[in-house]
Amino acid sequence: MNNLFSIFDLQKNFYMSSNEMSYKNLLSKLIHFNEVFKKYEKELYKVIGESYDQPLWDIYHTEIKPVIREVKYFIKRIKIFRKAKLLKNNFIDNLFKQNTTYRQPYGSCLFLLNQSMPISKTFILLIGALVCGNSLFVKLPTFTVDVNRIIKCIFKEVFNDNYIYFIDENISENDLKNVYDFNFDLVYYNGNTANAKTIQRIFAPRLTKIVLDINNKNPVILDETANLELAAKKIIWSKMLLGGQTSHSPDFLIIHESIFQSFIKILKTEYDSQFGKGEKIDKITRIDTNQNYENITSILNKSLSKNRIIFGGLTDNNQRKIELTLVQVDDLKSALLSQDINSPILPVVIFNSFSDINGIVEHSDTPSCIYFFSKNKKRINSLLKQIESRFFCINNISIPWFKGLPFGGIKNSGTHLYSKRDTVKAFTYKKIIIKEFWDSKEKYLNNTEKNNKIKEKIEKMN
């Protein structure tokens, strides 16, 4: 424990006294990081493939490409982000003064990462915070041992402990509580709502800056005018990408009763089209950890007494795999709708009237994403205005980081967006510098003549 505090103290002193956080030094670190990441790329394919049984195409587009894209972006623009900018005022104000602003890093940051998939998200967050000039204490998610090892190897080859220090993932609860007592300038957490509230209770009394990215339930909604073939294709792809373990994959389906039966038939056909007929479990990504797999299957088994499996339900305990499983849910308080089940399980809620949708979605506490399939423009505009969310996708399901877009939530699903410029805004604050070259004496004098002129002007207004 003393060792952790000494490292934290070194980071504080390093941040306050060193020029190592200059953009020129960080730019050279970024260029080096880009080279190191490419050096480990082959090993990343191997480790991720063996750990989660992901296809090579998925690994490249979800784990490798987003990181390379992010690093290249910061290499080109780090000077722009770190450069002071002149504040625009009117000509007279600018004549004898110069007001500038620049992005100031918060300093010493604690990163508590609980969302394990995709792995690229961890790289994007940490690189972004380091580029901003912060020093980091990081607790990684419960990846496999090999995945954690390679993440640490890549960062440690470029950044020493003064920049980033990785806390042991198996740290005891008591030691972690002691780490919470350190005087961090910013705390970042991603994970579930219950743990996010605990983090807020710990750090809010100290007025520590808290940045949250929370797993919430993202609904995909189909009304009776929806293009069912298109919706089926998008739902199968997004729900099975990384085994449904991303924070932006659809978590439950809300569908109009008139199209329910026909859509299920189309969905089964599309599932066979994308994964082949017959047994598909070998083609599905593994659940990240044994603990998560056991929690998900336990919730599924307990809920079966009250809910009905529409199709799927096959599991493989040895491989930690779950086949695409649709479960019809009648009770909105069901564990399938209230607890984290990031997996290929898709609860289905049937509605009769469009007015029912608001009440159903409210149970997900401000989702990050809403996916709405409809041809009715009035309904699209109505839902867009009535339900709060960070992303609203019309006749599409778009995973933000997959497309190079920022990711994040709003209100109960998070506090900020992340990726590229948005990462800079999340992990820095705007500092304003005011310089005056000449000071007018008139503002210090009780000028009777000018006061009388203003008084006359006010009287004329009346």
TrEMBL record:
Gene Ontology MF terms: aldehyde dehydrogenase (NAD+) activity
All copies of domain Aldehyde dehydrogenase, residue ranges: 30-432
Coiled-coil annotated residue ranges, if any: none
Any Pfam family the entry gives: Aldedh
GO-annotated biological processes: aldehyde metabolic process
InterPro entries xref list: Ald_DH/histidinol_DH, Ald_DH_C, Ald_DH_N, Aldehyde_DH_dom, Aldehyde_DH_NAD(P)
Keywords (A to Z) from UniProt: Oxidoreductase
GO cellular component: cytoplasm
Family: Belongs to the aldehyde dehydrogenase family.
Protein name: Aldehyde dehydrogenase
